[in-house]
């Protein structure tokens, strides 16, 4: 039998009130107990199967707190009702609260609570060793997130393996989501993980890993038509299910264009020589070298050096114009399927007008190294371009993960998507959505884990998040947002969701498989590495500017005075 003294601490915070259930206990105390306070309740109960008495230690967290005053109706009422609930405050104030009981420790085992603690039982501030037993898994394959709120001696660790069932981080702006991303990314990488961050605002560009053995790679992400498999690229350009002819023609045209561009790069590089070669028409010799027959089915075709190519100044621009030119020449020369070819051509033109392309961006796959964080900066792209880029990243990652598994060398990857509501909008169609959803559905089998981050949970389409099993809920004030996340996670009860409004910066309710069966109120560790996008300390910046202004004014005045002195002298 467990010694129930382990369930007690030095601090008694109240008593069980009138109502007590296995998973919810009313508490009466003199002073309000802060939300998120962990409590323990030692009590004995009979085991009905054996008839033996057993010691229990119920552990819970304060999820509702209040302060009340008994309103006197009659003098006798005051006397009886106040002593009934054990109130000795002379102003008849008392603090009813509720604790959500999530664990019952019986004989040293953590179990699901099934008996209610009796009314009037003393309630303690939960001793740290009990909480550590419940939360501090600390086993291999877990990483530290932070500590319990107000209990810096109770570490919170999460199981990295559970991340294959994806992660959702949400909270209002400034609540600490990106800091959480930095902490998780850094610590996952430090145990050898491969992490990618789709950085919508360029916030992670300056991220410096805390762990010395973590590599960071930063790229301005662009689509590189040479690196994306033709089938994938074709699907992006012509997504319509029925347009198979258009797609087949486009795929052929793209294959030819890729060959030409690749040849141009190997022959002339991507510098001044290339620009010269294209503008001087040398490129047609290259086409001849490649063999017209092979490229255009026997037609002799030459590329006119038109204004667009001649005016292009960077190698990327030139290659893109060349690429489009080849595609268009190929499609317009396809004599037997004129109509499909023309339709395809206009879609291709539209696509390359929208999407930001670079022929020098490496394939995503080249960044997938162990113990590394790759920041894919897309902050300078328009929303639609970000959308296309994300689709291509998701498709490439999924296809890579599948291949690696098929080769018996699985390579797990954790990918963060910031501002996920932009891509998983519940009200707007987006290009990337179906690809993100596919990763959410299938990624688990291949070790491709998704971490979606958003400050607007109510605007997120529920299809993807319904696949998510791990959560970091930070401060959320709006009821619609609280409601939205309650629909997503069935572990989140209404009282806990409501308590999200009072969380501070960096504080979170962490739920899901990665933390175990119990909700944890966590103070997330602060990431020390520099990151842009942190809230500016506006007041001190202004104050520094003002000091500088005062100084300039003073200097100006001093030099003016000096000037006057000198002019008086002469
Ligand atoms: N766990 C923490 N401990 C201490 N300070 C924190 C913590 N988390 C965040 N902060 C501070 O709060 C500010 C905002 O954090 P962060 O940028 O992570 O918020 P956010 O939720 O990503 O905001 P946004 O929605 O605007 O992107 C930063 O200045 C950061 O340093
Ligand atoms: Mg952020």
Your description of this structure?
This protein has 570 residues and is α/β, with parallel strands linked by helices. The protein folds into four domains: 132 residues, no CATH class; 233 residues, P-loop containing nucleotide triphosphate hydrolases (Rossmann fold, 3-Layer(aba) Sandwich); 125 residues, no CATH class; 32 residues. The chain has 17 helices and 19 strands. A hairpin with a 3-residue loop joins β1 and β2. The N and C termini lie far apart (102 Å). 43% of the residues are buried. The structure holds adenosine-5'-triphosphate (ATP) and magnesium ion. The site of adenosine-5'-triphosphate has 16 residues, from α3.
Tell me the radius of gyration: 32 Å
CATH class of the largest domain: Alpha Beta
Main pleated-sheet profile: 11 strands, mixed
* Span between termini: 102 Å
Q: Could you name the CATH homologous superfamily of the largest domain? A: P-loop containing nucleotide triphosphate hydrolases
Q: Strand order across the biggest sheet?
A: 10-9-19-18-17-11-16-15-12-14-13
Shape: globular
Helix content, binned percent:
25-40%
CATH topology of the largest domain: Rossmann fold
């Amino acid at each position: 039998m467990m010694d129930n003294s382990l369930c007690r601490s030095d601090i008694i915070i109240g008593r069980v009130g009138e109502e007590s259930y296995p998973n919810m206990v009313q508490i009466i105390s003199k002073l309000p107990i802060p939300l998120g306070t962990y409590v323990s309740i030692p009590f004995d109960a009979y085991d009905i199967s054996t008839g033996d008495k057993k010691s229990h230690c119920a552990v819970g967290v304060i999820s509702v707190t209040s302060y009340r005053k008994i309103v006197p109706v009659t003098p006798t009422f005051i006397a009886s009702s106040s002593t009934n609930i054990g109130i000795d405050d002379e102003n008849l104030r008392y603090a009813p609260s509720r604790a959500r009981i999530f664990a019952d420790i019986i004989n040293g085992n953590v179990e699901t609570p099934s008996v209610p603690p009796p009314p009037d039982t003393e309630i303690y501030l939960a001793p740290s060793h009990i909480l550590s037993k419940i939360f501090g898994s600390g086993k291999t394959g877990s990483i530290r997130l932070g500590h319990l709120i107000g209990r810096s001696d109770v570490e919170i660790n999460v199981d990295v393996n559970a991340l294959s069932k994806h992660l959702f981080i949400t909270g209002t702006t400034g609540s600490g989501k990106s800091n959480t991303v930095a902490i998780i990314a850094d610590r996952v990488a430090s145990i050898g993980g491969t992490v990618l961050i789709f950085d919508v605002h360029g916030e992670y560009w300056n991220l410096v890993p805390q762990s010395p053995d973590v590599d960071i790679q930063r790229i301005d992400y662009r689509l590189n038509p040479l690196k994306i498999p033709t089938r994938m690229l074709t699907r992006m350009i012509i997504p319509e299910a029925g347009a198979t002819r258009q797609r087949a023609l486009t795929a052929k045209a793209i294959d030819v264009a890729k060959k030409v561009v690749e040849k141009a790069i190997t022959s002339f590089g991507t510098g001044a020589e290339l620009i010269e070669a294209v503008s001087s028409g040398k490129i047609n010799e290259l086409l001849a070298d490649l063999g017209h027959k092979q490229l255009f089915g026997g037609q002799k075709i030459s590329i006119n050096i038109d204004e667009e190519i001649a005016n292009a100044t960077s190698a990327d621009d030139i290659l893109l114009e060349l690429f489009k030119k080849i595609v268009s020449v190929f499609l317009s020369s396809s004599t037997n399927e004129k109509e499909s070819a023309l339709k395809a051509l206009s879609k291709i033109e539209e696509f390359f007008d929208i999407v930001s392309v670079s022929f020098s961006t490496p394939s995503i796959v080249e960044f997938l190294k162990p113990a590394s964080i790759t920041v894919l900066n897309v902050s300078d792209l328009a929303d639609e371009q970000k959308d296309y880029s994300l689709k291509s990243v998701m498709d490439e990652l999924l296809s890579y993960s599948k291949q690696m598994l098929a080769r018996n060398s699985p390579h797990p990857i954790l990918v963060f998507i910031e501002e996920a509501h932009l891509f998983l909008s519940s009200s707007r169609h987006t290009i990337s959505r179906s690809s993100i959803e596919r990763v959410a559905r299938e990624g688990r089998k291949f070790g491709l884990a998704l971490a979606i981050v958003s400050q607007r949970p109510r605007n997120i389409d529920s299809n993807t998040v319904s696949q998510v099993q791990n959560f970091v809920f930070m401060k959320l004030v709006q009821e619609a947002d609280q409601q939205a996340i309650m629909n997503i996670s069935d572990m989140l009860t209404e009282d806990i969701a409501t308590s999200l409004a009072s969380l501070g910066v960096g504080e979170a309710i962490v739920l899901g498989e990665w933390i175990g069966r119990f909700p944890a109120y966590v103070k997330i560790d602060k990431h020390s590495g520099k990151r842009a996008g942190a809230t500016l300390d506006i007041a001190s910046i202004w104050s520094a500017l003002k000091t500088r202004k005062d100084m300039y004014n003073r200097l100006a005045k001093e030099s003016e005075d000096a000037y006057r002195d000198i002019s008086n002298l002469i």
